[in-house]
Q: What sequence folds into this?
């Protein structure tokens, strides 16, 4: 055996001994990570602060930020491989899993339930959730607001058929609500906070009708090939979440600059936000499963789903 071959074999053995062997998958050169985000939560802050770019620079990996209006289109982009990693509320992953989307839950942000609610005009005769019977309720189909609506009806003892669902993306819903074309609007921050600047009443926040979480999700194939990068993304958001929780005034200023949303509304949204990024726990899975079962029971998804089948295990610090 030549000296050079013995050297190569020795180096390989050392790599395997330290758990750093380079597999064909790991050897693939990743040049860019594509992040799907909305103008909500911690993603706009992290984008503005450049912390992901800094974390990935030493690996020669760039970051591409792709903006979406709400969750379902983000997950469709993750499913098709046009985005690698993104953030949504609780309902979009359930609809995506029912459609056999190629994605995984990779982390969670437990919610205090104050960043989402159902609003009506201040002079509306709707005073309670029960008063939604026979009314037009607007929400984005397949979104967390869809789930809040369903949970609110359940809480009030109403059937889904007791309302007229009006499925609208946030931008269209703003106009529909202002024009009186819907009687109530189920929506999340910052749209909820913006609506509260006007003459509205919140008849229920999310926490009044359900326990909820938001999620980080990633393309399944991407996670298989680049598990270390997904872990690094989670860890970076985890650290940024800790910073955000302790610097809310700075977060509000950054979000206003990044999104152009009114300062008062931005401050209101930030002050009631949760930023803690955690692994997907058994409790979180159970809560999400309840949501999935609720949608299946109502016939809103075509088949039952088992949430734990698409959960990726992450350990903070890894």
A:
């Amino acid at each position: 055996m030549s000296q050079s071959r013995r050297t190569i074999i020795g180096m390989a053995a050392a790599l395997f001994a330290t758990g750093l062997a380079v597999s064909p998958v790991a050897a693939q050169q990743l040049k860019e990570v594509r992040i799907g985000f909305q103008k909500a939560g911690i993603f706009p802050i992290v984008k503005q602060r450049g912390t992901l770019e800094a974390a990935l620079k030493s690996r020669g990996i760039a970051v591409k930020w792709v903006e979406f209006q709400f969750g379902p289109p983000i997950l469709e982009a993750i499913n098709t491989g046009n985005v690698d990693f993104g953030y949504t509320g609780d309902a979009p992953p359930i609809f995506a899993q029912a459609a056999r989307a190629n994605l995984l839950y990779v982390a969670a942000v437990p919610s205090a339930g104050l960043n989402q609610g159902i609003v009506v005009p201040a002079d509306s005769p709707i005073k309670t959730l029960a008063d939604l019977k026979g009314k037009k309720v607007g929400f984005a189909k397949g979104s967390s607001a869809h789930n809040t609506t369903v949970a609110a009806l359940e809480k009030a003892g109403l059937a889904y058929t007791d309302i007229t669902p009006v499925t609208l993306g946030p931008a269209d819903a703003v106009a529909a609500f202002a024009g009186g074309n819907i009687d109530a609007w189920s929506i999340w921050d910052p749209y909820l906070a913006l609506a509260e600047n006007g003459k509205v009443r919140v008849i229920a926040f999310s926490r009044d009708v359900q326990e909820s979480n938001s999620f980080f999700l990633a393309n399944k194939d991407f996670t298989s090939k680049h598990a270390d990068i997904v872990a690094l993304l989670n860890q970076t958001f985890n650290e940024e979440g800790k910073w955000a929780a302790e610097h809310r005034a700075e977060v509000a200023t950054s979000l206003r600059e990044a999104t152009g949303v009114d300062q008062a509304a931005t401050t209101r949204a930030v002050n009631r936000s949760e930023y803690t990024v955690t692994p997907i726990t058994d409790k979180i899975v159970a809560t999400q499963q309840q949501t999935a079962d609720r949608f299946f029971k109502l016939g809103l998804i075509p088949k039952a789903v088992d949430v734990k089948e698409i959960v990726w295990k992450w350990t903070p610090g890894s």
